[in-house]
Design a protein that fits this description.
This is Large ribosomal subunit protein uL29. This protein is mainly α. It has 4 helices and no strands. It has one domain. The longest helix is centred in the N-terminal third of the chain and has 26 residues.
Length: 69
């Protein structure tokens, strides 16, 4: 019995892995992905602004920098 269960588990594991790989290929380059395909990281890292968002400046900031160099 143990051998049968192990072999079933092995087959199911491979099936699940191939499914996940296919999903990764499908969602690659798309804007939104399922939660389980997104990078895990830490809670703080996920909530942090992206590098692009950090660099953006408001109109008011841009005007101040232009006037007072």
């Amino acid at each position: 019995m143990r051998v049968v269960r192990k072999s079933i588990t092995r087959v199911l594991t491979v099936i699940n892995q191939t499914q996940k790989e296919n999903l990764k290929k499908f969602y690659k380059g798309k804007k939104y992905k399922p939660l389980d395909l997104r990078p895990k990281k830490t809670r703080a890292m996920r909530r942090r602004l992206t590098k692009h968002e950090e660099k953006l400046k408001t109109k008011k900031q841009q005007r101040k920098e232009r006037l007072y160099r």
